Amino acid sequence: MEASNTGPGGLDRAPGSAGGFLESYLPFLLHRSYQLLSETFHAGLADVGLDITECRVINSLADFGPLTLQRIQTHAYIVQPTASRACARLESRGLITRRVGTGDKRQRIFELSEEGREVSRRLMDVSSVALAETLTRTSLDPLRLETILRHLIADLERSRPGNDGSPHGELERP
């Protein structure tokens, strides 16, 4: 008789899968798939000399232009102390610049330097190669998977408690 999990993860256990709550808990499975999908990319980051948080900051600035620390946090899905430390490291390496906001002198605006733009282009190359390599190890259609994940994120963002209608539900690229 097959065991089934209809609890918080909401998944039926696959035939032959190892038992346990985590092996059938959707958030854990999504995190595990992220880790496996990202292994090759994370290895490539070492060649560029960045960690994943710094990569997210650089990509946020490349995608959206100059941003406040708060907007970087939102786009990169990182908390304030982590974002501050990453920005400080990137600034000390000359990859980003910081300037005072025009309306609020307490506000700091971060922007990619020319060297930061070059690093961003290298990150895109590393990302493309890593993803292509990783996807050869799966039988799933990557476009279908991306569509499913975008729908899941949009549904969860839309029904999020306290949702104020802001565009946080859009999936950001790593």
Basic shape? globular
Low-confidence segments, given as residue ranges, are: 1-11, 167-174
CATH topology: Arc Repressor Mutant, subunit A
Strand order of the largest sheet: 1-3-2
Please give the largest β-sheet: 3 strands, antiparallel
Given helix and strand content, the structural type is mainly alpha
Distance between the termini: 42 Å
Which architecture would the CATH scheme give at its second level? Orthogonal Bundle
Number-wise, the strands total 3
What top-tier CATH class fits best? Mainly Alpha
- Count up the domains: 1
Q: How many separate helices?
A: 6
**Which bin fits the share of residues in helices?**
55-70%
Helix and strand succession?
Answer: HHEHHEEHH
Radius of gyration: 19 Å
Strand content: 5-15%
What is the mean pLDDT?
84
Write the layout of secondary structure elements.
Elements: H1 26-48, H2 52-64, E1 67-68, H3 69-76, H4 80-92, E2 96-100, E3 108-112, H5 114-135, H6 142-158
Antiparallel strand pairs: 1-3, 2-3
